[in-house]
């Protein structure tokens, strides 16, 4: 449902749905919302989602790539450059197939 709302640009409704879920949302739920943020260029909600993903899975190469893609799609070039530099410094690498 989060993915469906997100694909249709109803990101705030998707956030409300997540908040009202009886169980704690997992990486899949947050990842669906982050993908929608990228598609619709919503960096504000995207940053909130990134915080949730960091709490769930910590810093990983895959998460760096998702964040980088969001920044690229929304033309935040300087932020993207800083993130890529941080990724290199941390030694984070994208997992194959992700």
TrEMBL record:
GO terms for molecular function: RNA binding. Gene3D superfamilies: Tetratricopeptide repeat domain. Pfam families: E_motif, PPR. The keyword Coiled coil does not apply. It comes from the Eukaryota. InterPro entries: E_motif (IPR046848), PPR_At4g14850-like_plant (IPR046960), PPR_rpt (IPR002885), TPR-like_helical_dom_sf (IPR011990). Keywords: Repeat, Transit peptide. GO terms for biological process: RNA modification. This is Pentatricopeptide repeat-containing protein. The gene is ga16603.
């Amino acid at each position: 449902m989060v993915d469906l709302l997100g694909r249709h640009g109803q990101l705030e409704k998707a956030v409300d749905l997540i908040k009202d879920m009886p169980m704690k949302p997992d990486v899949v739920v947050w990842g669906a919302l982050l993908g929608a943020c990228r598609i619709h260029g919503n960096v504000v909600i995207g940053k909130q989602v990134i915080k949730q993903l960091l709490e769930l899975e910590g810093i990983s190469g895959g998460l760096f790539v998702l964040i980088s893609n969001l920044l690229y799609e929304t033309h935040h070039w300087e932020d993207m450059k800083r993130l890529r530099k941080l990724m290199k410094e941390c030694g984070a690498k994208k997992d194959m197939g992700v």
